[in-house]
Structures are given as structure tokens and as C-alpha cells.
Amino acid sequence: MMNKTMFSVFVLGSIYAQSVKAEAIEIGDILELLQLYMVIGGVFIAVIAALGIWVFGFDVRRTRNELDDVKKEVNEKRKPFLNYIPS
To answer: In whole angstroms, what is the distance from residue 72 CA to residue 1 CA?
Structure first.
């Protein structure tokens, strides 16, 4: 048996719940938040990379020279094999 206080709490609670009209969180809302966090994270990573390049510098000439050295080494290693290829 339900006494009067429990019944009144139940009735008042159901009236309050209907008046609030709470909305459930939908999948679209979660995906929008996830997309927002991904954009913020990408901007954060880009700023950190830009600060790293600005602070530590980025010597383009040194890297180009290193690439030229690697190309020379690869070409020297390929020379013996190029003799076996019929033209």
C-alpha cells in the first residue's frame, strides 16, 4: 500500500519531470563535440609545430644537402646493376 506522502511525492515528481522536458543526448551532439575537439586538437598541434620550428629553426639547405648525398650513394650502388640491364 502506498501512503499519502509517497503518492504525493510520486505525483509531484512526475509533474516536475513533465515540466522540465529534459532532452536526451543524441549521437549527433556527441559527434559534433568530437569534431570540435578534433579541430581544437589539430590547431593545437599546428601551433606546437610552428613554435618548434620557430624556436629550434629549420635548416632547409642542410636537409637538401643530405638528400643529395643520399641520392649520390644510391646511384653509386645502382651502377653495377645498370650494366646488366639490356638496352
So the answer is: 93
C-alpha cell at 47: 601551433
CA distances to 62, 67, 69, 81, 86 from 76, rounded to whole Å, are 21, 14, 11, 10, 19
Residue written as cell 515540466?
19
How do the domains of the chain map onto residue ranges?
24-82
Alpha-carbon gap, residue 66 to 75, rounded angstroms = 14
**Calpha distance 51→29 (Å, rounded):** 33
Tell me what the mean pLDDT of segment 56-71 comes to.
76
Q: Please compute, for residue 67, the number of CA atoms within 13 A of its CA located in the half-sphere on the CB side.
A: 6
Note the pLDDT tens digit of each residue in 67-77: 888 889 888 88
* 10, 28, 29 from 21: Cα distances, Å: 17, 19, 18
